[in-house]
Amino acid sequence: MNDSVNILIIEDDEDINRLLCNIISKNGYTPKPAYSGTEAIIYLESQKWDLVLLDLMLPGLSGEEILRKVTKESNVPVIIISAKLETQTKIDALRAGADDYITKPFDIEEVSARIDSCLRRYRRMADMPTTNQIRHKDLVMDTDAKKVFVNGKELKLTAREYEILFLLMSSPKKVFTKANLFESVWKEEFYGDDNTINVHMSNLRRKLSKANPNEEYIETIWGMGYRLKT
User: Fold this and answer.
1) Of 45, 87, 130, 181, whose CB count within 10 A is highest?
2) Global pTM?
């Protein structure tokens, strides 16, 4: 099965690129080197990839631009491998859709383990049944089994938390007022008691944040209510 796993390595330093190709080959996967952003785009558009390893500082087209393009146009997982150590750079890359961030100089065993882990996670998501699912970012809701998965791992929610998330995911652009949420989930008239909604929303957000600390799924629209964060 590993023979068909194709990994694109976008790294302009020839020695590092060769090293990453060796790591990938030893793991049983098929590496393809690209040495500039422009070359990478040609490969990205010419075939399907299972994983992309991406340096941020590239000639031709920056790693950030490639990351935006990949996450906008496909579901291919991306691991950043960069000499940029600033926390903000890491945060920006993860928020922009990167699945992992490894700083140079890196440990060969760690890179190998993270590649395996990332591919495993995506394989689990791909293996999940596609019937009656609602998806948002790495969040998958199976409306038949009444289960929620983040990054392929099941999230344990109470019935109320599930209903709140279901509402938000069913209408991703809609802003739900507290009254909307309460009357839809509790099936009772809303008399302005915010506490019930606040507690359930806080618990739901905490569970989502714990499952993936680098992603935000629900945003508060001040003075109005809540909606799914795009």
Assistant:
1) 181
2) 0.56
